[in-house]
Prior knowledge:
The protein is mainly α. 44% of the residues lie in helices and 0% in strands. It is globular and about 35 Å long. The termini are far apart. The relative contact order is 0.21. The model is unreliable at 74-84 (pLDDT under 50).
Amino acid sequence: LLASMCYQCHGTNGQATAGFESISGKPANSMLKDLLEMRARRPEGIMDYQARAYTPEQLRLIADYLARLSKSPGGEEENENDED
């Protein structure tokens, strides 16, 4: 639910189509660092305002969730135990 706002620009399950960065499957620590920086700096764009809408803990939860999503189209969660 927390990540649903991200999907408005970054696509369903973080899979962007055009003009925006795909964010699914990116390292959680990197995403969290970026989001916290956006939250702390003087607002420069929409992401700076979006990041302010969440607590640091909520941003961590969002980053952790998005990092677990597959980078493949459809954004299904990867399962390391799946066998082909």
